[in-house]
Batch of 4 targets.
Target 1
Amino acid sequence: MAPSRCTRAPTSASSSRWSGYATNRKLAVEDAIDADPLAAALRELMAVRRSWAGSAAELLRMFADGRPGGPAGIGIESARWPSNPRTLAGRLRRAQTFLRTLGIEIAFSREGHAGHRIIRIRANPGDIVSTVSVTDVAGGAIWK
């Protein structure tokens, strides 16, 4: 009986395929975050902070005010920027999976007797990629 695929040792061809998959996945996550101004701003914020907790309204106000520790020049006047706290929370929920891949955990909860909605954001600094750069080598773009 021939050995099954599960019992074979990985070959160099399969490991190179896996490496290519991992690289493509990382680039897809970066593209998804770069396409969303809120996710990109949150990535920049968490590159300089370890954690943040508060309401969606407080997070929206912090980005609008450009407070210290927050990213500068994120283009909150754009039509793609959330206009209210409810929209911001929904956009965070949609970006949550991509941000988790970069080491940014987002948790939504209710606290107190009145059930105030709290967003907790925690970052693992070693996993956060703040930017993606492109270098042109011999006419071909290479992502770093």
Note: The beta strands are 51-54, 104-111, 116-123, 134-137, 140-143.
Target 2
Amino acid sequence: MPGAELVKAPHAQFFGEALVNRATGGRQHLPPCRPSIIHYQSPRGGALSDGRQQLNMKFTAIDFETANADRSSACAVGLVMIENGEVIGRVRQLIRPEPLIFDPFNISIHGIKPSDVTDAPTFGEFWPNLWSHVSGPLVAHNASFDMSVLRRSLEQFGLRYPETDYFCTRVIAKLAWPDYPTYALDHIAHVIGIEFVHHDAEEDARACALIAIAACKQLNVPTLYDLQEGCGLRVGRLFSAGYSACGGPHSTHTNRGIPA
């Protein structure tokens, strides 16, 4: 964000390699994400606008990386908090999956190895901290994956689902740009000019957040919730007894979760 002031939260760690990478827009692979919380303060204040519609949205973009095919094997999570169309904070955290089993295929995707998470908290240990940073609804790209990782991880530790709405930017991108050949995160980001490092949890969450903002500008709506009436978007929801999936105008999906 041009002109933004970086303000470190207490006890936060930030690694220069990642900062240089974002500043230059480079695509080289970042080191495996370390625990870090970074908050932004913008000297401009107010909401971002493209001249058509002022953005009043508040949400938290989330992305998980997993150690193997099991959806309860989260090994990294990234959060990006948005208020009034601007990034106000980021969280990146390694997670120690239980059991500690990494598939070589997953390692080849995100670069995180068992030795990287030896001293990291488990999902159950980090959950209270993670949820304390969430503000507004959750947003994820291909939310069916990230929400299933969240649900399975909560179930593994006997934790109740939080009460929250959520949105899928893959679904939203199909409404905003209906003629794209694919709606993969890296393709959408590339087409609309977002530079990021794919399969770094925080970077993916940031790209997701910026896609959500760009889609609202494209569709000329001030909030994600306005897509319900304007485009027939069905908002997803997590609740203590289960969830209902985010979807397009003609999709429905509701499931029950673990007993409260």
Note: The first strand starts at residue 5 and ends at 8.
Target 3
Amino acid sequence: MKPLWQTSLTVLCFMMVSWATQATTVTLQTSVGNLEISLFDSAAPHTVENFLGYVNRGAYNLSIIHRSVPGFIIQGGGYTWNEATLSVAKVPADPAVVNEFSVDRSNVRGTIAMAKLGGNPNSATSEWFINLADNSGNLDNQNGGFTVFGQVINGMAVVDAIAALPIINAGGAFNTLPMVTPPTSNQIHQDNLVMINSVNINPVFPITVEKNGTGNGTVTSESVGINCGNDCTENYFSDTHVVLMATPNSVSSFTGWSGGDCSGTGTCEVTMNAIKTVTATFARITHLLTVNKSGAGKGMVTSNPSGIHCGTGCTKLLRSYNNNTRVILTATPNSNSTFSGWSGSGCSGTGTCTVTMGTNRTVKAIFKAKQTLQ
């Protein structure tokens, strides 16, 4: 690979590259510390597939960071180290991947991009680099742009520590070789090098929220992901701490969690180390409406919405209504009676009686017998 040699920088506003919970993440275990990188599976599918091909067959295991340019990049993926022979070997290259550069994925600090041959935008194979600074003014504008295919989401302090190491000129591709410790002789050993001991794909686990009970509501996650409602299953990286919150609708109450080691009616906190299912139970809130009839007369009381129908032989009727239901009661006397009015729950007069069921309610309808001449 021809090294990236231009180091001029244009100062730009830092542009964060977003990543989704569904993205593939990998962990690079180095001799200086671990890096976690989120890959842009959807935005750069061919490049990510190419990179994961090397990861899956272990091609990056026992490889080295062979180039470090402070304030610019650190570069790896090209060479493995053999301590038995005290020598390097090229990582066997797959066919070159098509360039997928986009201005939406710029070469800013913390991004990982593919290295390639000068004058050939579609020549990237195994080598990659991590941007130490905003290199967009330079790397976005040469050789078709360098394809950013991921971002360091944990471990930039490790990247900076590697960049701060002393470098030596070991010739050829190793003219800026970082040293963890200086060699004590003319021979370099594994302990001197920044080793990438392994690169592994991080597991992803799904969490599913189920809703149960006579009521209804929504369950959301504190961070982007679950919104159930409609989105009741989401994938999360291993060891992600997920906080779920339940919100009942206006006619329901939340009665508690089950599953996923959650209980009670507070938040549900789940650590994603396996497939998880959590159930939120909602109960419908109902209130009792009691209608009494009194007086010497007779008549009927009906309701809208339906439920109350207290006719001639009825003196008391109870019905349950959902929380906040607006119930309109109508009193109709028979031919030998008159309706003299309502009492209770704020009702009076001889028109309709309207009650809002925010609690249990009791209403009385009074009917009088008509006076007759003997």
Note: The helical segments are 45-56, 136-139, 156-163.
Target 4
Amino acid sequence: MLWLLLFSVVGVVGGITKDVEVSVRDVVTMEKSEGTYVYSTTALHHSGVLAMLAAAVAKADGIGQPQCIVVCDASGTVLGSMRMTGAKFLSLKSAESKAKSAASSGRPSNTLLDALRGPLAAATDGDVTGMPGGLPIRIDGVLLGGIGVGSGHGDQDIVVANAALAAIGAMTFDLAVYGGEP
């Protein structure tokens, strides 16, 4: 008797998670016919993270607003963070949520629909937020992660995040379009 196994498979095409039924015989056949189950990707280097943090701190100093800054990779893993002297300590948590939101969606954190903000925040233990200050890190169209900035007003957070993105040649975001509420 052939047993069927239920696997949760991340589809390589489109990155969609779906459930599929695969028999033991199919698994053996796939391994032989399809070869390898790996792919290449581009990742943010630690020197890029340091450059982003330095640029963000310089911009925050320049506008006179101490900030919390968090940089994460495309999987939401924090690669670097900084709480500037005088920044609100709880803003470190919101900056991390902003970075993870931007990395997960590939969009600025404040573009999350109002109707989804509460349910998604609850479902992710606060890892998803709709507050301004989270921007995706995208170079040559490739999503590398997210940066989150918090402790100032929404517009200040976005200006500081944009300075960090510009420091590594990443796509920046127009404040007139993606600006936060004061």
Note: The radius of gyration is 19 Å.
